[in-house]
Amino acid sequence: VSYLTHLECAACGRRHPADVLQNTCPCGGSLLARYDLARLGREAARDALAAGPPSLWRYAPLLPADDPEEAVTQREGWTPLLRARGIERALGCEAVFVKNEGANPTGTFKDRGASVAVTRARELGVKEVVLSSSGNAGVAWSAYAARAGVSCAVVLPVDAPLEAKRHCGLFGARLFALRGPWARAGALVREAAGRHGWFNVNTLQEPYRLEGKKTMGFEIAEQMGWRLPDAIVYPTGGGLGPIAIWKAFEELRALGWAEGPDPRLLVTQYAGCAPIVRAWREGRERPEPWGEIDIIPGGLRAPDPPGGAQVLRLLRRTEGAAIAVTKEEALDAAGELAREEGVLACPEGATTLAGLRRALREGLVRPGERVVLMNTGSGQRYASAFPKAVATLLWEEEGIPG
Ligand SMILES: Cc1ncc(COP(=O)(O)O)c(C=O)c1O
Questions:
Q1: Ligand 1 contact via 240 beta carbon (within 6 Å)
Q2: pTM score > 0.90 for this model?
Q3: 397 pLDDT tier (thresholds 50, 70, 90)
């Protein structure tokens, strides 16, 4: 059973019922799902979670589905938290972990938001959803919509990774290519939703995607024995991931289930699209839209991040940091994760390792701290982005020398 009670506007605090379909508050603020944590604390024990399924649905009491038995699931979440001893040696650190979201069914953490939000949308009667995506969310939503019998329309940038376009198509989604500036994507989706009666599931345009993503925070806590790490490095695009993870910590703390202070948030972005890093350096409350984008095509294409102001607030509250890395640093780091850890990281995920290296150099992280790198997805969908790794292949034409 779910302990969901109501929705609350993140901007004006107004309460909304949770049993009717909602996008945002009339004031424009995003809606947060709220639970009866006091009752949950009385009725459930933290350690009982261990008996739950090896998926994010082990946290069903803290998720919005009325009937978790009917969840749209294919065992997303409960991804491994890997100790990264090779990286520790290379960086001179004592405790580095990789949360490997590449292990999700469609290869990224986007499956979490899709599983939970599609489940809830279907419960509330939704038949068609629409979103814009730089690729990975489009694939995840196409897959979970297919599984739920819900139609899905996806707006992708023309240069989205070919594999992402193909996978969306394979799952039967309707695809629309956006040729103009990507900053227009959100407005385009709002218009299309209004015109066709589709449900807009874009970042922070409905409350439940965030609920799926917060399970990353629950898992980090549970997998670390409920003692939170000192810092989490997150490759940040729209910003929903970090907002969701720290919402999880807030709920765990209210339940008395997590120990230690909130981890510091370290945001990584590509130098060629770093609106949050720039705003952090300039001490602004919200990011200014980024102009020309120069990144490895994929998830960090967020020139006007919808969660920007909330991420900046988190950075201030946790005394975190925001770090820009180059495309080359990201690809090198992906190679390093592959060689040192056997982890096939996506370039976005690899920015966290490049960012940690910089953070250590600049004294933002101390070598003794417990650090979690969020590898948000698998490198499988990015074969074309790894020419360097291919170039370093040892190819012995003549067979194995004797
Ligand atoms: C692989 C990957 N990493 C990171 C992100 C950024 O995540 P968020 O939107 O939660 O900031 C995305 C978003 O598309 C992504 O696909």
A1: yes
A2: yes
A3: low
